[in-house]
Amino acid sequence: MLTFVTGLVDAFSYLLLGRVFVANITGSLMFLGFALGGAPGFFWESYVLALVPFLIAAASGGLLIKAFGRHRGRHLLASLVLQDVVVAVALLIAFIMPIEETVTMQILTVLLAASFGLQNSTVRALKVPDMTTTVLTLTMTGIASDLSKEGSGRGQLRRRSASILSMVSGAIIGTLVIQYLEYRLILVIAFVVILVCTLLSLRLRNSKAPWTQSRVL
């Protein structure tokens, strides 16, 4: 579900916020290089506005690790609550400020990039195999490798394929919403999906299942 949100919000940020990626942050890093190299149509300020809050939020995720890192269920819940709050603020900004204004684009870029920096920090700490939710390069490599495997490799193939399809589906839906519906609906969907994940994770906060006990982070 969070991988779907990645594709959805990156469609929003790339198509409406000045060709910037707020979730697949590697794309913004590459674009920053293009801008610094003098390529036309790329503006370094936009990419810095995505990269800096992403990294700050990811670093701040260390505070969550200290507070909840020994229990993965509580760590996940706390992270989702914070991410949904940030997305809610972005949604509010999108409703009260015109998207065409540069300051609106900048504020939304900062907020959304920060939300995914936090998400990435949490996913990295949880260490769920093949579930990075944002960067899928290694996932696609794993799919190519799994095609020649049998047995357990097929299970990995299904999981990795689901990640790819989720992100692509999010990107497709985000693009269609922008073209034919109301662009703010993208942030509404993102907020609702993260909220659903938050509600689902509530039952995990007191779980004593083995997977909730984190390895050394």
Choose one word for the global shape. Answer: globular
User: What is the percentage of strand-forming residues?
Assistant: under 5%
Helix-strand sequence: HHHHHHHH
Q: Provide the number of structural domains.
A: 1
> Counting H and I runs of at least 4 residues, what is the number of helices?
8
Q: How many angstroms separate the termini?
A: 24 Å
Spans of at least 5 consecutive residues whose pLDDT stays below 50 are none
Summarize the main sheet.
none
pLDDT averaged over residues: 83
Q: What class, by secondary structure content? A: mainly alpha
Please give the number of β-strands.
Answer: 0
Cα radius of gyration in angstroms: 18 Å
> Can you give the helix content as a percent range?
over 70%
Would you write up a description of this structure?
This is DUF1275 domain-containing protein. The chain crosses the membrane at residues 12-36, 42-64, 76-97, 103-121, 162-180, 186-204. InterPro entries: DUF1275 (IPR010699), MFS_trans_sf (IPR036259). By secondary structure, the chain is mainly alpha-helical. The chain has one domain (2-212). The chain has helices at residues 2-16, 25-36, 44-68, 72-96, 102-126, 137-146, 152-180, 184-201. The protein is globular.
Give a short overview.
The chain is an all-alpha fold and 217 residues long. The protein is built from 8 helices and no strands.
